[in-house]
Amino acid sequence: MRYFAYGSNMNISQTQQRCPGITGIGQYQLDGFRLVFNYHADIIPAVGCTVHGGLWQITPNHESSLDRYEGYPSYYDKHYRDDVMFYRMKEASDNSEPPSRWYLEVIIQGYKDFGLTQDDFEESLGVQQLGLTETAVEQILGVSAADLERLFSRVATSPTY
């Protein structure tokens, strides 16, 4: 089975700690969704939007570990598209609470781990597609545009999968 990761499960070092032996396959795009934050990362349906993330090859043991980590079935539900599994919050909402700075840094490291860019991250948020202003993005993420750029420029840049 393959697993589409967005949010903290793109961070290779953390995911490999949770799921020893998990294999990163590469980048993946999930069309028709966008990335939102309800303190934790989530994706919600959004016409014309695309979430960029990482794709993992998982075993049944990895899936069990991920289920525990994600709080399945009480906090996140499992969804499938073709042969790819992904999680979505049971109580989905549209950017109700920004992530902590630490959590945002973990996510950004995950984007970098999979060779994705700040532009990919902003596309995942739906910045261009929804016409989000810089102020709106700052409210969604809880950091300034300059801080976001610094976070993307200071983390490791080469994929390790």
What does this structure look like?
The chain has 161 residues and is of the alpha+beta class. The protein has a single domain (2-154), classed as Gamma-glutamyl cyclotransferase-like (Hypothetical upf0131 protein ytfp), CATH 3.10.490. Helix content is 38%, strand content 31%. The chain has helices at 12-18, 60-70, 101-113, 118-125, 127-130, 134-141, 145-154; strands at residues 2-5, 23-38, 40-57, 76-81, 84-89.
Topology:
Layout: E1 2-5, H1 12-18, E2 23-38, E3 40-57, H2 60-70, E4 76-81, E5 84-89, H3 101-113, H4 118-125, H5 127-130, H6 134-141, H7 145-154
Parallel strand pairs: 1-5
Antiparallel strand pairs: 1-3, 2-3, 4-5
Mean pLDDT reading: 94
Shape: globular
Number of strands: 5
State Rg: 15 Å
What does this entry show, briefly?
With about 160 residues, the chain is an alpha+beta fold.
Quick tags:
7 helices, 161 residues, Hypothetical upf0131 protein ytfp, alpha+beta
